[in-house]
Amino acid sequence: MKRIQSLLLLVALLLVNDTFGQGKTIITGKITNPLSDDITVITYPNPLIPQEKETTVELTGTTFKLEVPVTETTLAELVHGNEVVPVYLEPGYSLTLSFNGDKFLKTIKFEGKGTNENNYLAQYTRRFDEVEDYQVLPDNIKLNEKEFTEFLDYRKKDQLKNLEKYTGKNPVSDKFKAFALSEIDYSYANDKVSYPTLRQRVGASKNYVAPSTGFYSFLNELDLNKGLAISPAYVVFLRNYAAHLAKATGLTETDRLYYKKSYSLATEKLQGKARLLAQAHILKQSIEKGHIGYSEEMMNNYKTGGANPEVITYLENYLAANSKNALGSLAPDFKLKSIDGSEVALSDFRGKVVYLNFWQAGCGLCMIELPHVQALTKQLQGKNVGFVNISLDEDEEKWRKTVTTKQLQGTHLYLKGLDAELVKRYDLKDVPAYFLLDEEGRFLTTKARRPNDREAANDILRYLNQGQASTK
């Protein structure tokens, strides 16, 4: 089974207390055919902060005893060897379990306080998470809209029937039943809201057709603010729901306003803790992939919305740590020798979009792509674009000969070697490397399309048009 990992790390802190207190769960057990000499339970005391809390003990023969700190209802992971199963814990649980190491999930059985909840979870995982017929990928995503909805309806009906039948004979806590229902409801909702994107991603629909008018009507039946943060399905749904709202406006993830729009729509559509949960996730994505100016704007807004102070501190630190060469941050300036002997600075190109190319005359791939750089330069001649090419050759004469012999267009500058300080400042790992900067010298992208990509020119023109639109 896949580990729960980052989804719980991102959000559940919004709903839990800041400290562990005195709560704990006792887990004891016996393993037949152990896979290793120890067993571990992984919890997430600060779920937004990617630091796992591991409680590990060595086996005494084939038995073990674990004392796991638990102050709030949580979904943890039981790890033995390379095997992982989910474990549902509430403060005060005392569980005894047994399993065969060779068939971990298939043989695990629980006894004690929390037995019914965890036996259900193991049974549910075996039946619905491990059986391919119930999975969206790889085959069911190929179904058309009507067939896919029928598949999800059938699966949800089966899941609800299974829950009702199990709890009719094996009573569970109200908290657990709410968790189980959240998993069922939001796995359905998430798979449906992400259906169009998944079809495009896997190439299941070469000629994409937007969903029908009634396809998203199920959203009107959901109370989007009452899911549980310990439910991975709910967390994933909120992320994809926010993405759905942004894409419905015509934006894509490469658009500068994508994350800002996603954030504002989540703020408008959601309330309370659900809003904070979605905002935190969007903000983290924006810090990783979006425009730093908009990320800073969202961060300032998020701080005024009643979020947990520890969450705010983490996101502020994350923003600071990821500000170097982030989209929207100022590209490191330089002043270098040009082919005609004059000195040229990056700041000389303020007011123009800049396509920045780091290359070497001694690099085979660079030389293969060089004609495409020239073709792109000619194609956008007369536009408000500067093409700046920085050679990192050890041999300056080789660079000069290449530029003059091939009569290369654009601005050509020289910087000796890959060990130069500017190389480190641009975080270059290899050449060729391409960047796109806006009129203020800020990063539009640190991974611009290669010049032989037919969409490279369209990207630049789109950025130019966006800039013109924003000034109107």
TrEMBL record:
Keywords: Cytochrome c-type biogenesis, Disulfide bond, Redox-active center, Signal. Gene3D superfamilies: Glutaredoxin (3.40.30.10). Residues 1-21 form the signal peptide. One of its GO terms (cellular component) is cell envelope. One of its GO terms (biological process) is cytochrome complex assembly. Pfam families: Redoxin. Its main location: other. PROSITE patterns: THIOREDOXIN_2. One of its GO terms (molecular function) is oxidoreductase activity. InterPro entries: Redoxin (IPR013740), Thioredoxin-like_sf (IPR036249), Thioredoxin_domain (IPR013766), Thioredoxin_ResA/DsbE_sf (IPR050553). It is found in: Cell envelope. Residues 325-469 form the Thioredoxin domain. This is AhpC/TSA family protein.
